[in-house]
Specification:
2 copies of one chain form a homodimer. By secondary structure, chain A is α/β, with parallel strands linked by helices. Chain A is built from 26 helices and 21 strands. In chain A, a hairpin with a 2-residue loop joins strand 2 and strand 3.
């Protein structure tokens, strides 16, 4: 039996530091942290193949802390090990003193794991629970693709494992045979407001994991012998999962005498707690071991693998891509849906090995299928599990991939919290939501993405630390713009969302048009008023224009194909030249392009009026896009009448 | 062995009608529908205790069609049975002819189940997958509370069962011992874009359900003997689940020869398919049975139970409620957080037995705990599974409860698709998201609800069929308004969302203030400009006002406590009286109150300028709300400086 005295001593020291840093911070989760003290120490000082001085190896083993609130113990270890933070060109080495800056405004030790502020030891922001195993699955898919022997240790709370996404991830890990992922369930038996349900007991977790297809080991999470045995075991055919029985607040009597969650010790409680840990050390017979950190740590560091995070990817010419996608016939008629054009673009982009894709069992609707057929090794079927899909895409992106993830826009929204965590992470994920708006018609409201524009616009106006939008939103109206915006997304670092539509529509742009971040197109030049539209509604607006022209009304038409608008004032200026009247038409709920322009108009000196026709009723099934538009008062006739009324009102 | 010849014949007839109605509609899912033909026939003609002529009994057995796309077979049966649709005061009896109106604009037979348009056989809009079992769990909780012997049959697709929420629901059903729910997994082996994963095979489902704590029966879903045996079995201690092996497109060779999903037969394919079903009938030896519908159906109808959907609920006086909640000491200091006031209000509302509550293991943070302690039989701990929590609340509401569901605002957002389905259903669910905004400070962005206002405002501007907002949004700034808005929510029929904050704040309203839908309060009357705020930012605005007054600037302050604003023009008028200058301050992302007023200003003749300071950076941890506000450029100083700059610009 190995002697773990030096590690036991380390556990005591890290435990003390954890108590001190959370008390100093005045908040945090020391009890959860202590329950992981032995496992984290074993991983970070011995088991993981990595280099704390270079967290950018891209070939090392990684820790995914799904239960993000337990992070103080990881910070304590990383600081003790002299771990490096910051950016590759501006690295900064931490010391134990830095641990005491936890949660300070200018500290990189955020309340929960957050790589985007400069803590590259982590791949994903966590803390909204249940997402880590999916991230680990994405990292493992990328590693297999790159032929890298990496392992991904994922720490999941027992209470957390009530989240359905955890089981979506378990399905994905087993189905894709991702033996590089080791899910470790921290069974300390306590949640925030109550003890953990018997549905998440160690026995229940063991039974469930076995049923899902894992080899399962149940261990004492404070016994190094058992920890090393399980965490260094080579998985066989099946992936391995570990259920670790632990004690919340290990070693501190104040925390172990009742359910103790999510609060630090007061200053006046600290001395007793530190004495508790000293007593624990004595009890374990390790109080005299005083090896310095460098000797306790026995780590091997893999050779680094370079990561090109700012790739230039080309989809080539539109028509060649459409021909390759078997869409030549559609082009002859000059009609093609935006979703098909996305499929053609993704297929063309697939020439670059960094491009990967995933989809939620609707790839034949989103047209991600074309990529899946051509590049099967880089396509990962996510099945009907959108939350796992998005977090898995985050993991793929963290490993250097340009990760596309698609579903119906409506169904992507159920992963909005995972999407928000991807925004916080600044993940290089490209989301594509198809069948958006009400042009889906017959399937009805349960399948229609009509809140998506408002949701993503909220993120679009949040700025990353580099000043770029936390999410770029693409709203293509035709196949050409969808094609070029897909290419643009692939070349933009960070989170993007593109909205595509079901129906075939005329191709209105030529190959030589260019599409840029936050851009718009002035499609038709009129003088009486301006109609602004996006996506499918651009075509409806054009039909309205024909009706208006028959009535002698001459409107400008503008296609807003991206948010946030880079230069909304230009559109206001066009409105100013058209009697100061703008009418925005949208097939989505309030919060989209009309609000974008109203926001700009509200602080503009031009005095432009921004009218809007947006979806303001709950849609239901109809048999055609035209009927749905009529029912929602968004038909060409409705638009033409609204335009006429505006014109009459100023006459 | 019983003779099922009449039911076999019914299956053939309903199968034919399903083919006709989907071909007539030009879209739909006949193959999924046919896989359920026997199970649905057994349920709707024999097993369920209900009355097709009165779907408003509130005491009957219910069918929850989680895989909503299979709905044509249910419509076919319901039309054949002369089922009633519409409203209780305007009932309409269907005929088989009505089945052919599927998906028409003025038909109540929507593409997917949708009770809100007048199809009361269903309790919930479904079609976004994975939500039905949670709804059934909510219905069963309500039935147990009401002492009603009802059963809830829930049909779930095998591919659908990849959704994590399905397993959240299974945990909830087992933990709450909801033997009244019978989950039936339709294992037809085919998804939309591919065959169903081996992770969702009948064997895998059986193993998983067993591990989750169910007694499981695996049956042939086209064998009436086995269907009746399983679906009428009395569960023992454990809940029962059924895995039904079925054939997608049962009886139609065109559909069974390959993966056939989500498309109707063409007109020219119909005759062959109908002939296939006739041949199937002959093969089963039932072609000669021609019993009329009324004889095939052998149904028992329970006595009706009245349902009061428009209750008047009172929380009583604020101070008495706070005393009862043990908050007397806080009142002495005149400070109380909005989340505590919500807890006090919910406790007070608990005097009405229709009020129920659920929470996602943060009830000691949201203060739903007060209700849980006082009314344990009406509190349902949802654990860390927000999606199941929201859909379960929908089920509770469908059974006549006033269902409150709470979590951190950030974590509620992960159920946004379930919330949208509740909006489509027009469910009487009251959502409360706590720890919203950036005043949470130390915990960092993974715990902060900062996109919630934009999300819910999108729904707030969608109108129900009765013209009311699909969601009312409440943004209380102090304990009094939080208390009264909680009471208002309980009295409003339909979906509501209230946003509460962590910190204690001064109580600024007196007991005699009233709070109404879409309202605001003119807190301070100034003349130089108007500051508009909501929630926590009202207090920040008041601090800014003090700074501004020191600089000789006299601003009006308005508290917008609800969206959609009923009379935004009144606020614009106040702005017009204050040099035409409004400054909106928000601790959330773009898409909230500033956009609400900009939208109004953009069509107003008043020419009011709407400036805004909203959260436009990704938050990180800090040690105090004040530091977070400073980091986000939303501090009192920032507001005062922005106000001064606005004033200077017009001087």
């Amino acid at each position: 039996m190995a002697d773990y005295n030096d590690l036991q001593k380390k556990v005591i020291d890290l435990g003390k530091l954890t108590l001190r840093m959370t008390t100093e911070a005045g908040s945090g989760h020391p009890s959860s942290a202590l329950s992981l003290a032995h496992i984290v120490t074993a991983l970070m000082y011995r088991i993981m193949r990595y280099n704390p001085r270079d967290p950018w190896l891209n070939s090392d083993d990684r820790l995914v802390l799904s239960e993000g609130h337990a992070v103080p113990i990881v910070y304590a270890a990383y600081c003790d090990l002299g771990g490096v933070v910051g950016e590759p060109d501006r690295p900064k080495q931490l010391t134990s003193e830095d641990a005491l800056t936890l949660r300070e405004a200018d500290s990189l030790l955020d309340g929960h794991p957050n790589p985007a502020i400069g803590f590259p030891f982590f791949d994903a922001a966590t803390g909204s629970l249940g997402q880590g195993a999916s991230v680990a699955a994405g990292l493992a898919l990328a590693a297999r693709l790159d032929g890298l022997d990496r392992r991904f240790f994922c720490l999941i709370g027992d209470g957390e494992s009530r989240e359905g996404q955890v089981w979506e991830a378990m399905d994905a890990i087993v189905e894709h045979k991702l033996t590089a992922v080791l899910p470790i369930f921290n069974s300390n038996g306590q949640g925030q407001s109550d003890y953990v349900s018997t549905q998440q007991s160690p026995d229940a977790l063991q039974a469930k994991l076995t049923a899902f297809g894992f080899d399962v080991r149940v261990i004492d999470g404070h016994d190094f012998e058992q920890i090393f045995d399980a965490l260094t075991a080579q998985p066989g055919e099946k992936p391995l999962a570990v259920v670790a029985k632990t004690v919340k607040g290990w070693g501190v009597s104040e925390m172990t005498s009742s359910n103790y969650h999510g609060k630090p010790l007061r200053e006046d409680q600290l001395a007793d707690a530190l004495a508790d840990l000293d007593a624990k050390a004595a009890e374990l017979g390790v109080a005299d071991v005083s090896a310095p950190a460098s000797e306790v740590a026995q780590l091997t560091s893999p050779d680094p693998v370079p990561l090109n995070r700012r790739p230039s990817v080309s989809a080539g010419p539109f028509r060649a891509a459409c021909d390759a996608a078997g869409m030549g016939k559609a082009l002859e008629k000059n009609v093609l849906s935006t979703r098909r054009a996305y499929g053609a673009a993704l297929l063309a982009l697939g020439g670059d090995p960094r491009v990967v894709a995933t989809d939620g069992d609707v790839k034949n609707s989103t047209f991600t299928e074309l990529f899946a057929q051509a590049y099967g090794d880089r396509y990962f079927e996510a099945r009907i599990a959108e939350q796992n899909m998005v977090s898995m895409a985050l993991g793929l992106a963290a490993a250097g991939k340009i990760a596309f993830a698609s579903s119906f826009a409506k169904f992507l929204m159920r992963a909005i919290d995972q999407i928000e965590m991807a925004a916080i992470t600044n993940a290089n994920v490209k989301l594509v939501g198809s069948h958006a708006g009400i042009s889906l018609a017959a399937d009805g409201p349960s399948q229609m993405g009509v809140a998506d524009v408002a949701f993503f616009r909220a993120y679009a106006h949040s700025k990353r630390t580099d000043g770029a939008p936390a999410c770029r939103v693409m709203l293509p109206s035709d196949a050409m713009s969808a094609f070029k915006l897909t290419e643009l997304m692939a070349n933009l670092e960070g989170l993007c969302y593109m909205r595509t539509h079901r129906p075939d529509v005329p191709i209105i742009y030529s190959e030589d048009e260019s599409f840029t971040e936050g851009g718009y197109k002035h499609l038709h030049d009129g003088s009486d008023l301006v109609i602004v539209a996006s996506g499918y509604m651009v075509h409806v607006a054009r039909q309205a224009l024909a009706l208006m022209e028959a009535n002698g009304l001459d409107a400008s038409v503008i296609d807003v194909y991206a948010l946030p608008l880079a230069r909304p004032d230009e559109i206001l200026q066009i409105g100013d030249d058209c009697n100061g009247q703008i009418l925005v038409v949208e097939d989505n709920y309030r919060g989209g392009v009309a609000d974008e322009l109203a926001m700009a108009a509200a602080v503009s000196d031009l005095g432009v009026t921004v009218h809007s026709l947006v979806l303001e009723t709950m849609p239901k099934s109809t048999k055609s896009p035209e009927e749905s538009l009529r029912a929602a008062a968004l038909s060409p006739q409705h638009i033409a009448e609204a335009a006429q009324a505006i014109f009459d009102s100023i006459a």
